[in-house]
Amino acid sequence: MFAVFRKPKTFKLRALHSQKKFGVAGRSCQEVLKKGCLHLQLPVAGSRLCLYEDGTELTGDYFWSVPDNSELVLLTSGQTWQGYVSDISGFLSAFHRPSAGLIQAARQLLSDERAPLRQKLLADLLHTISENIAAETRAEDPPWFEGLESRFQSKSGYLRYSCESRIRSYLREVNSYAPTVGEEAQGEYTRIVDLMCQKLRAVQYNGSYFDRGARAGLRLCTPEGWFCCQGPFDVDSCASKHSINPYGNRESRVLFSTWNLDHIIEKKRTVVPALAEAVTERDGREVAWEYFYSLLFTSENLKLVHIACHKKTTHKLSCDPHRIYKLPTKSKRRRPARKCQ
Q: What does this protein do (predicted)?
């Protein structure tokens, strides 16, 4: 009964499947509904109002508890609305390959959006529909190659190079540790590093890890180029389900450079010092350099992780003491030849 003395509530109203919104004010749900139907030229009978955010129907009891400037959708008989996710579902179902008009519409939605969760969903949608994942060459997707040297003519070629560069940097770290090894052991340490280098050259520095064209088992992504975060070093998987496709667009390519190949058993704190110690204290034993190679340069000890999953704390893991040296080969005794009777 006191509604007539209250200040009218204001809303932003739009029709279903329309991005155009207009302001409307009223002291009751019915008043707002009538004004909205008049503006949109829709029949009042069978029409109703619901919240854009979650699809909750606006009733008389709920009317005054809704914040001012809330966004409403006006529905006619037979129409439904499940909330703002309906916008995104509409985008994805209406277009197999998004047009420039769709992308512009998504950008307009985002620029007018203030709710953080909706901003995130719309930004993710815009990022996804702007991708050109199937394209592979510079000619097919020139924007992807912006800022890269002209020698890179394919996406797979560049990402393979990117992975090789990371592995090469690990090799340089191993090599730079040589001066800390005692003089008597430096020759053997250098020999082992050379053997690792030769093996890396043979497999092209494991650049296949980032190459979607590589064989399954040699790459860390799907044939389409999707990478999934493997989670921090101390868990089996990524709880946040981080994923990325650096083949999609330039922004994804740049963002992918922040993902890490994280050593489960730490390279600098553990593996390299353990290798140096093994060489120094070998005492006639043969260092199992291929074990150290696997820890330093292969997915046996490397996890691809999103920057948020890259824990920079001490891992407190050590090398397997039973694999540091090669097992001595047992010489087989020759049995004496049996004399013919």
A: Nuclease that induces DNA fragmentation and chromatin condensation during apoptosis. Degrades naked DNA and induces apoptotic morphology.
Tokens representing 224? 């389409």
Phi-psi region of 55 (alpha: psi -120 to 50; beta: other; left: phi over 0): left
How does residue 328 score in pLDDT terms, banded at 50, 70 and 90?
confident
Contacting residues for 130 by C-beta, under 8 A, at least 6 apart: 98, 103, 248, 249
pTM of the predicted model, to two decimals?
Answer: 0.63
Calpha distance 181→274 (Å, rounded): 11
In this prediction, residues 135-147 reach a mean pLDDT of 95
Quote the strand ranges of the chain, DSSP E. Answer: 9-15, 22-26, 48-51, 70-75, 227-228, 243-244, 260-263, 302-305
Q: Check if the beta carbon of residue 184 is closer than 8 Å to that of residue 279.
A: no
Helix (H/G/I), strand (E/B), else coil: 124? helix
Q: Is 109 domain-assigned?
A: yes
- Please write the tens of the pLDDT for every residue from 15-34: 987 878 899 999 999 999 99
Looking at the structure, tell me whether residues 162 and 303 fall in a common domain. Answer: yes
The helix (H) or strand (E) run that includes residue 121 is helix 116-129
* Statement: residue 212 has pLDDT above 60: yes
Laid out side by side, the sheet with 48-51 consists of: 22-26, 9-15, 70-75, 48-51
Q: How many residues does the chain have?
A: 341
Count of domains observed in the chain? 3
Residue range(s) defining the domain that contains residue 7: 3-75
Three-class DSSP category at 24: strand
Selection from 167, 138, 133, 165 nearest residue 151 by Cα: 138
pLDDT value for 192: 97
Asked if the structure places residue 317 within a domain, the reply is no
Q: Is the CA virtual torsion 209, 155, 230, 260 positive or negative?
A: positive
Please give the average per-residue pLDDT across 278-282, as a whole number. Answer: 95
